[in-house]
Amino acid sequence: MCVRQEKYGLFNITYTNGNGEMITWDQILVQDGGKLIADIEYDQQIMKEINGKIIVISLYHDGFVHTYYEHGEYVYVLTADHSDIDEVCLIFDSILVD
Length: 98
What we know:
Elements: E1 2-7, E2 10-16, E3 22-29, E4 44-50, E5 53-59, E6 65-71, E7 74-80, H1 85-95
Antiparallel strand pairs: 1-2, 2-3, 3-7, 4-5, 5-6, 6-7
């Protein structure tokens, strides 16, 4: 199931597979005084270059993945209940085209 939501400053797509695992893509307009909260208790964090752009990937022991990317006036956040670096890179590779 795929759900798409749009409102001022935020674009969100949530995909849920048959096992109930979720992948969420958020596009957030950066605003003065705005807040973006992220869990910093990750087990490993790497920076990966995809199509010339740097993506910050945080990995957790239970398979949860959180990614962060800034471009222009937007922040892009991809989270997944259970994923790995290769899958995340494929998703970003398909989205981040010039």
